[in-house]
Amino acid sequence: MKITNQNRRKVYAWLIVLVGLHLVIACAGFFAPYDPTLQNRERPYAPPMRVHWFDATGHIHARPFVYSQQLRAGSFDEYEEDKSSALPMSFFVSGSPYKLLGVIPLHTHLFGAGETQVFLLGSDGYGRDLFSRMLFGGQISLLAGLMAASLALCTGLLIGALAGFFGGWTDEILMRVAELFLALPWLYLLFAVRAFLPLSVSPLQAFLMVALLIGAVGWARPARLIRGVVLSAKERDYVPAARGFGASDFYLLRRHILPSTWSVILTQAALLIPQYVLAEVTLSFLGLGVPEPTPSWGNLLASLQQYSVLTSYWWMYLPGLAMVPFFLGYLALASALQTSAEGSKI
Amino acid sequence: MDRRPEGFRRGISRRIVATALSALLISAAFFQQARPQDKTRNVGTNADLLTLPGEIGNRGGRLVVSLRAEPKTLNPLIANDAPSRQVIGAMQADLIHINRATQMTEPALAKSWTVSKDGLQYTLKLREGVQFSDGHPLDADDVVFSFHLYLDEKVAAPQRDLLIVGGKPLAVKKVDPHTVTFELAKPYGAAERLFDGLAILPKHLLEQPYKEGKLDQAWSLGTPGNQISGAGPFRLKEYVAGQRLVLERNPYYWKVDGEANRLPYLDELDYLFVPSADAEVIRFQAGETDLIGISRVAADNFAALSRQVGGHKMIDAGPGLEYNFLFFNLNELGAKASPEIVRKQKWFADVRFRQAVSLAVDRQAIVRLVYQGRGAPLWGPVTPADRRWLNSSLPQPARSIDKARELLRSAGFSWKTQSGAEQLIDSRGAPVEFSVITSASNAERLKMTTLIQDDLKQLGMLVQVVPLEFRSLLDRVMQTKEYDACVLGVANYDADPNADMNVWLSNGGSHFWNMGETKPATPWEAEIDRLLEQQLASRTAEERKRIYDRVQQIINDNEPLIFLASPDILVGAKNSVGNFHPAVLEPYVLWNVEQIYLRTGAQSARQ
Q1: DSSP code of A180?
Q2: What is the pTM of this model?
Q3: Do A291 and B466 touch (CB under 8 A)?
Q4: How far, CA to CA in Å, does A195 sit from each of A198, B421, B472?
Q5: Residues pairing with B131 in the sheet
Q6: Given an 8 Å threshold on Cβ–Cβ distance, is A105 in contact with B420?
């Protein structure tokens, strides 16, 4: 019992971390200083700006500040810090309009520095703020992962429960189909399907398509797991007992069998979400996801396919790091969930 | 990921739409660097040798270069892809050649020529004692035979269209073993430029396959070296599928340097096949190749290579002949066409709409962000590289969103605000929304399109960028005509208006915005047709220039293509490569391959 309590605390701790991270991404409009598609054509491939508290003379400033960047004369991408002009950063500034959580129209941003754009993580080849793009890109990638995972789990739950509960030829057919899906090299399948669909699609359509595709391909593994749980659950003594009292199939499933699959579903969700986020990233990286100028973690990394970007602009790798805390959170949550599920069985 | 910046180039043919490869090499031979003094010399033989001025080099050595794809054939009669033309260029020679540095014609296998007073007959004197690379002599019979093949409809050579002047094929006649005449049905401005790139083929090797009707199988890559010959500086030595093609020095070559040494200097010329532009850069960086720039190096890679201090130098040869442009679908679509496109065509057909788009495009930003400043903004099809033909009086209006809006307003468009964003709507209230297709594997053009998308957003136009595989893009533009707008580029092989005619003639094979017109669709297209015919018939360069200036003006007034920018030709070579003088005409780096040599260690240290 002690183990379970400790684990439950772990589960909650990781859940809070994850909720926090997701809130930041969901409120990207507030945390991001600029519109992710805003091009500053005077400053392509600007390196990240350092936030200072102390100026060159060693004086401490009340507010953090940045030095403005000057393009070295005649060069395309070499910048110098202009030490003479310290730009103090302001907080809760008014800027480009956005919709918080997609509904509330606002134009307050967490920070800014007046007219000059602050590139916390540098800018890309069009002079777009990488920090803003990373936050907004997370919305697409995470939402695609969440949607795909819920689609895969719902399908998996339905098919797994049917196969496990009814058994016989239903089970045979459904499980053979599931094995077929498991055996498919999913990445190539996604390529093939994506190639068949029209190329000229709006970002929203492309996004839904990607999420649907990933979800539709991924249902087999959860289905098999759920079938296993259902198989063992229906042999428990209370199930034949309930049936003896005249319970219907539907009642048995709802009341006695599906609740026992709950922990498997949660663990699976925690495992599948990062996996599907990665699938979206892969597709977008290869140019099959959401189109420019809409950012996603995958197409932010796509420019790294160019040798010159790979060798010249290290900050273009940073969007890759954004995924790390999320994946860490999900995997830790999955492991905590699994331990607590095992604990509760004892 | 394949990132080769393929271009859209037209070669010898007017119909042929070139492959998805960047450095389409149109010419078939590379020659002199400055105007050669054609003093005939005898070096042990009785041959009329051509003496080239320039630095005297060392004999021997092997030059390794990279190609972004394997050549498909070594047969000039069927070669249609860039790598094939590139290799054939080093193996074959033509009668009259365009010097890539001076852009003027020069004697090659023909040592001199005369034109009759009416401009209809050209008499060419061939160099005596010239031999093919297998030692067989080259004479008027080979010339007549070669042109017979180029003109034979059954051979279907890509060069054929070019040799039909005034509706009739060129008539070729042998006068004596070293004199040939060419008759034209109509006067043709700069007709001697036609001969550039037309390889003179060995009759003794190709007559047999021609008679058997097997010409299209002749001279494949698998053919043994002793069954292929040409009058170019190199001949075939070895081909390893998927890896490399090795050419060796042609000992019978007909050029010598200032000290009467037989050219070429190099013993071997190796072409390595690499999969992409990035792979090409990495190979060059690792020192595995001596030269880079058979296909122009992209600006970002050029910058990365320039930053590296090492045994190589990178050269910006200046603006090339490539022009990139945006155009709208103005085809007359039949009843089967998608009503969506037909509806949008009402906007596209209005010249004020096109002008507004042109005014909104930030060309300076394209030059700076796509070419890192190594390029030129464009307002017409003639690039700054082509000083002789550029109409410098064309207006170059600065970007102006206000003027663009005014034009749109006068054309009946208006704006409404929807969910915070301003949206352009047409006179019937429909939002102006369209997609622009572009080649997915061309990073430069993709970037241009993304910039245009943002430019046009400021006019309230909703633009979708659609990257397509190059072949399916061409299929949409040329065949199915299912597209709204497209960004494409053309790289001419010659700095002469005739090279660009198939874009501007209303029935031209690359009349992109309205393919296959049976008669000119608009009065201004008819006017361009008339002027182009007129310049063909005129005999002085001044007259032709005056007419072509007018053509450029009409194009500028009507903006069927919205010109964007032209990239500089960026190349590089190891310091050990001597006589490296890149040109802005293709082939950029190997046009003087017979003079290129490798310095010894001490010589390159001094460099």
Answers
A1: H
A2: 0.83
A3: yes
A4: 8, 32, 12
A5: B137
A6: yes
